[in-house]
Automatic annotation (TrEMBL):
Signal peptide: 1-21
Protein name: Dhrs1 protein
SUPFAM superfamilies membership: NAD(P)-binding Rossmann-fold domains
Family, similarity comment: Belongs to the short-chain dehydrogenases/reductases (SDR) family.
InterPro entries hit by this protein: NAD(P)-bd_dom_sf, SDR_fam
Key words, A-Z: Signal
Amino acid sequence: MVGWRSLLFVVLIAFIAYNLQTPFSKANLEPSLVGKVAVVTGGSRGIGKGIAIGLGETGATVYVTGRTVSSSSTNTGGPGGVPQAGTLEETCAEVVKAGGKCIAAGVDSGNDEQLREFIDQVVRDHGRIDVLVNNAFSAVSWLPKHAGKPFWEKGADAWDQVNHVGLRSHYLASVFAARHMTTAKSGLIINVGSFGGLNYIFDVAYGIGKAAMDRMAADMAIELATDNVTMISLWPGIVATENIQDGALGGMSERRGLAPGPEFDTAALVQSPLAETPLFVGRAVSAFARDRTKFDFTGKVLLPATMAAGYGVIDERGLRTPPFNSVKFLAAAALKSTLQEQGLFAASTELFKAVKPTANMELFWKKLPDLTVPQFILKLVAGSPNL
Ligand SMILES: *[C@@H]1O[C@H](CO)[C@@H](O)[C@H](O)[C@H]1NC(C)=O
């Protein structure tokens, strides 16, 4: 009979060994993306904008797509039907300032023919498409408006609002890009997924769409493998986007039914280093795009915060948000008020603006190890018990 002490010891050794390995390493990175062409769908704001700037910082030519090209474009996609912050032209100005090239492409991802024509045009103009980031999502204002209602009251509208520009457009953009990437025997496709693909957060159609994005990456990766094309699903953590800062999650706490797991006070975390900035996600994506070993990760779900830890990526606050499957993340969330008193939580910042963290903040958020647990444990503890 193995005693609990020996068992604990084995688990501890395994945990330490797991944390000593560094799957993502700075040593594997190409220095830049100069000459590479990337497409980010949904680039007017939020995570898409952060990824575009992150790619631009390392010299890529970035196409950002969306419907809000300039401030004169019609835009009622914000919470409550108000215009959302940001336009493609504003994103491009920041991509260029960061050192990249940028093209604002007025493309409705919901229109199959426009999407195909656009990707073919990119390849006609540059002879290549190296990176596709499937990020466009049009239900940012629809979701909070219908929070608290069950799926049977939302009807077909939920499916179409959440999964047309989102799941379906990601599938098609991947089809069109893969035609060129497989011919070139090189390329990277990233689905911007979510922890919501594993566990209920807002809405049934949302969970289905996010789960399908992970599965899409896994299954497309199998067929893309013969042609040296990498595909992954990326799960950002809580990201301090313009819409989230403007309260896009308001009303989301009106969750019905069973309590599906630990509750986080998202509104409080968004103003802290436990929230990733969009640029942090972008810098992790840029590093991954430059990683010579990226194909080793094909088909997987990856967390930008885990990549950032391995690559040594920090955000514009000078900080590195720990991944949500880490002891550091969970402990910091639990000890929020203590960390606040120590001044370690005071990191709220205007998006994309550099700020100077204190030495203690740097020590805590940048240097202290994260102590992560393997991702499959998330499936065991937080996923629906469907296995
Ligand atoms: C696979 O693609 C990468 C870039 O994505 C490239 O560096 C490498 O040479 C390619 N390998 C083969 C065997 O074509």
